[in-house]
Amino acid sequence: MPEPRNISPDRVVLGLETSCDETAAAVVTGKREVLANVVLSQLDDHRPYGGVVPEIAARAHVEQLDGIIARAMNEAGLGFADLDAIAATAGPGLVGGVMVGLVTAKAIAAAARRPLIAVNHLEGHALSARLVAEVEFPFLCLLVSGGHCQLLVAEGVGRYRRLGSTIDDAVGEAFDKTAKLLGLGYPGGPALERAAAGGQACYDLPRPMLGRENCDFSFSGLKTAVRHLVEGLGPGAPSTRQVADVAASFQAAVGDVLADRCARAIAILQREHGGGSLVVAGGVAANATVRSRLEELATAHGIAMVAPPPALCTDNGAMIAWAGVERLALGLSDPLDVAARARWPLDAAAAGRIVSPRRGRSS
Ligand code: KG4
Ligand code: ZN
C-alpha cells in the first residue's frame, strides 16, 4: 500500500491506549505497517459488575501497562531509542486510566528524549481508516462506540466539524443494554451480533429520528421498545429463537437509523465538498450488519465506505500510534505537562457542551 502523502515512511511511533477497559500498546510506521498491536481486554475483571468499573480499570492499567508495552516493543523488535515519538490517549475517557497511559508515555518520552503526542481518543478512531486505506480529507466519519455516536466532517488532522450526535444513548450503549435485557451478557455488542445471526428481523421496532432534517440520533426509545416487546412475549419467554429474532430485529432497526442519518450527512458532504468517502469507526463498526448496510448506502451515493478491520474498530493502540504518526508529520507534539482530560470534544465548536456522558466519556 502506498504511504500517505506528507508522512515520512520511516517514522516509528509507539501508541498507548488506556481510556476505558482495554490496556493497549502498538508500534506503527509512516508506511502504515503495524509492527505490533497488543490489546489486553479487562473483560473478566468487569464482567461480574455488568459494566466497566473505573477504579478496577485504572488499577488493571497500572498493573498491566508496562508488560504490554514490553511485549509490543519486543514484537516490533525495537528499543525506545528507535522511536520517533510516543503517543498516548489523553482523553476523553475514564480519567484514572487515561492518566496511567499518559504518565507512562511522558516517562518514556522524557527518558528517550522523544516528543510526546497527546491524542484525542476520538481522533484515534476517526483517523484509523487512513491507517488501512487511502482516504483523503475531507471525509465523513460516523463514530459509533460505547460512549459516542456522532457524525463528523473530518476536514484535516485536528479539524473536525460535528454534523450531529446522539441526544440520549450512544449506539454501543444501546447494544449493551439490549443484550443485557435479552440475557446475552457482557459485553453486549458482539454477543447480540452472534445471537442475531440465527434469527429473523420479524419484530416491528421503532426507527427513532428517521426522516428528521438534522443528523442527530436517538436510541433510548428503541431500547425501551425492545423491553416492552420482551415483556409482552409472555411467561417463560424469550425462548432462544425469540432472543435471536429480537436481536436481529434490533440490529435491523439500528442499521436503518444509521443509514438514514448517514444519508443526510452524505448529502451535506456532497453539497459542500462535491464528494468524499464515508468512514465508519468505533466498536460498533465491527458489526457486520451495520457495515454492510452502510456499504450499500455509500455505493448508492457513489462514494466509498471505509471501515477498519474489526480488531481496529474496537479500542486499540494502533489507532493512537497512527494518530501520532499523522500529528508528527504536521510537526505537532505536546509539552510533558499536558493534562489528562475526562471530557474532550473533537470539534472546537462543541467545546464546553456536554452530551451523553457515559463511562466517564462525553462527546
Ligand atoms: O470503541 P470501543 O471499543 O470503546 C469505546 O470507545 O466506547 O466500543 C465499544 C462498544 C461497546 O458498546 C460494544 O458493545 C460495541 O462497541 N461493539 C459492538 C460490536 N463490537 C463491539 N457492537 C455491535 N456489534 C459488534 N460486533
Ligand atoms: Zn473507543
Description:
The protein has 363 residues and is α/β, with parallel strands linked by helices. It has two domains: 12-132 and 311-350, ATPase, nucleotide binding domain (Nucleotidyltransferase, domain 5); 139-308, ATPase, nucleotide binding domain (Nucleotidyltransferase, domain 5), CATH 3.30.420. It is built from eleven helices and ten strands. The strands form two sheets. The protein has a five-stranded mixed sheet with strand order 3-2-1-4-5, sandwiched between helices. α4 (121-132) crosses α11 (318-329) and α8 (240-273) packs parallel to α9 (288-300). The longest helix is centred in the C-terminal third of the chain and has 34 residues, at 240-273. The protein is globular. The two termini are 33 Å apart. Mean pLDDT is 93; it is low at 352-363. Bound molecules: 5'-O-[(R)-(carboxyoxy)(hydroxy)phosphoryl]adenosine (KG4) and zinc ion (ZN). Residues 20, 145-147, 172-173, 175-176, 187-190, 193, 282-284, 286-287, 314-315 line the site of 5'-O-[(R)-(carboxyoxy)(hydroxy)phosphoryl]adenosine.
Question: Gist?
Answer:
The protein is α/β, with parallel strands linked by helices and 363 residues long. The chain contains eleven helices and ten strands.
